[in-house]
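The freezer alarm interrupted the setup, so I double-checked each line after restarting. Inputs confirmed:
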Amino acid sequence: MGFAESMLLAYPGPLPHVDRIALTECIEACMESAQIATACAEACLSEPDLPELAECIRASLDCSDVAGTTAKVLSRHPGYDANLRRALLAACRAASALCAEQCERFAEAHRHCRVCAEACRRTEAACERARCSAGLCDAQRAGLTRRPRLPATCPAASHATTNGAVLPSMSTGGM
Amino acid sequence: MGFAESMLLAYPGPLPHVDRIALTECIEACMESAQIATACAEACLSEPDLPELAECIRASLDCSDVAGTTAKVLSRHPGYDANLRRALLAACRAASALCAEQCERFAEAHRHCRVCAEACRRTEAACERARCSAGLCDAQRAGLTRRPRLPATCPAASHATTNGAVLPSMSTGGM
Amino acid sequence: MGFAESMLLAYPGPLPHVDRIALTECIEACMESAQIATACAEACLSEPDLPELAECIRASLDCSDVAGTTAKVLSRHPGYDANLRRALLAACRAASALCAEQCERFAEAHRHCRVCAEACRRTEAACERARCSAGLCDAQRAGLTRRPRLPATCPAASHATTNGAVLPSMSTGGM
Amino acid sequence: MGFAESMLLAYPGPLPHVDRIALTECIEACMESAQIATACAEACLSEPDLPELAECIRASLDCSDVAGTTAKVLSRHPGYDANLRRALLAACRAASALCAEQCERFAEAHRHCRVCAEACRRTEAACERARCSAGLCDAQRAGLTRRPRLPATCPAASHATTNGAVLPSMSTGGM
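Predicted 3D structure, all chains:
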């Protein structure tokens, strides 16, 4: 059992709106990519092709800061607040995606960029699962009609309690 | 001249999409409320009515973390990315509003809550101005028609440079 | 292989002064206790005996902040600088010890305090090993004479390159 | 009145060991250099001489992280703990000094480095004053004999309650 899950189980009180697995996976993914992105930016500073890596470094620094903060905020359980959690998970997903895109450009040349890209893609996915599991993803915000059939791309498909209506397409950039 | 503006003026290169005033005011407001919220949570821990202040403390801790990170990310100038900046400013606005709401409940009883609430309301407003000035706010996302009349609540009303032209719809990266 | 070690191995260039195992264990311990301490402070806020937990919450918040920052700084490899690394590892060790002491008081009553105390003790030890492995611990600062025999309590005993002198005792409050 | 001082005055309870001026000046200096150092690292990434600025960027990132955390920890008032406060102020002073040294090398060429260096020197001094005012500086740790006469370089000279002994010289690199 991961440390995040261990602490969640130790929480004194019910957490009725929380999908424990999605939440703890997201916290752990965020923490991992926060450290990996810091280390990647550092390694880039020592590369001979440093001038080409400037945008990659920026994206890594942003990702590290946002992912680290997201892990902290997700570790708190205030009375339910959709705005903050939704926006922060969207920010973290965006920061992770940007960092992954930048690092993927250099993944063949630099091993640290490959490791970072993979971690950021995991975090991007974990943030989206956490959003959906908390009822905060685009499909849910759009409003489910009778018999919603969630598109294949929506991670919530695996938590389906819906029954088949056609949903508006979920733009990947949305929150 | 504040230190944030001073550093922005020292930036080596053009920043065509940046509203310098809105950005630096937002950075400084975020930093201020990050520290004030930390201090408020601390002061609450010493109050005799601590059990009633638990939600206030949570909101202050979230606000401190999110505002501090927002100030850092806003200090960077990557190639223009709508998703991250928009989502993070939304998260910071939400965190600031929540903290202000909680602190306003105790503003009469506790001076530190009053100071914190005021700082958070300033940050909430500064985040919205920064979003609008970067073309990222809700009014703009909704799509403006000819002779845009921005709603009274939109801070961008005071920065109006439009004169009725049709604005392009905002990139799919919207929130 | 942990992610911290993975990134260290991917570093482009030699790191002659670095004990890879001690460093990566310290980074991972710091990150873990940073998140656990955040979660412990949160859980304390929901406990019925919250007023008794105020100092515990403070110590957890300090530990989370300091450990998180230590993990970031340790992920960087600037030209060798003794002052910063030594002082920061000392601060992290102190913050972890304080948090552990506070949480141990409530470990029987609250599971989250027990988990947190254990994590902080691991971080305390990891910081001391990292300091010693980098030649920054008190025994080494005191100056080794010929044939140093490191006291049993000094984690550096296992890295012995010394040859047997009696060292002054390492004060627990020292840096 | 600065916001840090405002919050300190609003603290519910006595703070007998706190030199309000030294503490609030230190908090505000730390916050300022945390943001300025972030902005300086960012600006360096856009400079044509980026490869020469790698160490400067590292030092700026370290300084930003450590100063930001120091401001947070100093905003808390736990039961008196010498180890953590002393070590953290030492770390912040070291990080600020390193960043200042690096930035001073490029101060003529890059305005953002000049602004950053000046801010870091202020923070370095503020950390030392805060250490001395809390009885944590090297001169005091060395143990005052009768009639201590603090050396001119010790910021505590202006808070003198001592009575004239000759102290061992205070090494600037000490902790």
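Quick read of the result. Chain D has one domain: 19-142.
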